[in-house]
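hey can u check if this looks right to u? its 494 residues, i copy pasted from the old doc so theres a chance i mangled smth
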Amino acid sequence: MLLKSSSAPCRGDSAGIKGLDRDSSSRSELVEDQRKLTRRSHTFPAPDKRTALTSKRVAVSIQGAVRKAKLRCLTSMILLQKQATQVTITSDPEELLPANRPNSLRSNADVLKILLLDPINILLLAAPLGLLGASHQWSQGFVFLLCFTGLVPLAKLLGDATEHLAENLNGTVGGLLNATFGNAVELIITVSAIRSGLLDIVKQSCLGSILSNLLLVLGMSFFAGGVFQSEQRFPDGAALINMTMLCVGSMAFSLPTVFSFTAPPGTILKMSRVSSIFVGIGYIAYLIFQLYTHIEVFDEQADTVSDEQEESGGQKAKGNDEEEEEHLIVLSIPWALGLLLSCTLAVAVLSEMMVGSIEGLVKDWGVPPGFVGVILLPIVGNACEHASAVRMAMHDKCGTAIGIAVGSSTQMTLLAMPFAVITAWIVGQPLDFDLTPTGITVLTMSVLVVLTIVMDGRSNWLEGFMLMLAYCLVAVLYWYVPESQEHAHGHHRP
């Protein structure tokens, strides 16, 4: 019994050991399977990663298709809008992009609306009040003030219309148009004063316009540019050419003035009329030089500005791009001509009323006539040049600002003054080049001061401040110069 009982457990133990061996072999197989799966996971991407990559590729494809569809849709809309509004759009594909789309779709009415909604045009309300005051016999000084205020925005609109018309023409014709109508307000005031027999006002107005551009406009441009830039550089070639023309014009005015002390009766008038013809020929030569034979001398300003902007960084380049976009938005020729003729008619009417009220202004308000002619009237005529030059200087385009200010003075010297003498000759008025010793002294010194400033091709705010200070000195001079002293020199000649 003992032997049997001892043998049974031995057989059971051997069976258990075999079961344990099977369990251990199954565990080893499981471990081996897990290792194989682990090695496969390192070799192939997991199912969720493959799904993510596939989804990303699909999303990118969808976005590309949507982008292309939007561009096709945008191109179709632009072409439809072009047919509906008859706006000229260039065939350049880059202008079909959304960044350029608003400029190409602006109609003439939209551009005219932008011009008329300028904040300065609120002063146009004074124009009808001036006409009402002149017709109802209001105070002459008050009528002068209303007409003076109304002419300021009209001068700006007249300049804008001229620029828009010039943009639709080729470079030569456009430049000639700007040169001719750039001082249209001064020419209209000059004709009105000649018809009224105010010959001293004509000469003082032309002299004042030259001084205003040289001292006030150029000075404020240098000062405004110097506030934003410690020092501004500009090409001195075009500036020195304009200054040379101003020196010749000053010579044309100085010779009759000095010769009037010893000249026989009637000689100064004949001398001035013949000299005006030669000065006019000089202006034609100046236009040929500027617009035909030496265009690169005056285009050098734009090249210099672009180089400086590339060196200074992207912010100025961005502002330049915005200006170029605005530059492309122009009125068509019929609309620009309509605005030009309308402004010219309004300026002619208001100028007639303003000139007619000058005598009443002198008597009622006690304003010296020299101050009216040299200081007040040029403010109206130079409003457009003043705003443009200061704006260019603030955008670091000092060369362009000098071209506007000094170039306008050159036009007044070589065009407006000879035009006034010849016009007075035609209508039988004895207008000459005698600007009195005071006027010649002020003009010569102003030209010399500006010449010394522009010679080095650099400007700063202090130079602009000094030019404005010089203009204030001129204003003080003509406020205190009595009318009798201005006319006393005229009694030496017939």
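Residues 2-43 form the longest helix (42 residues).
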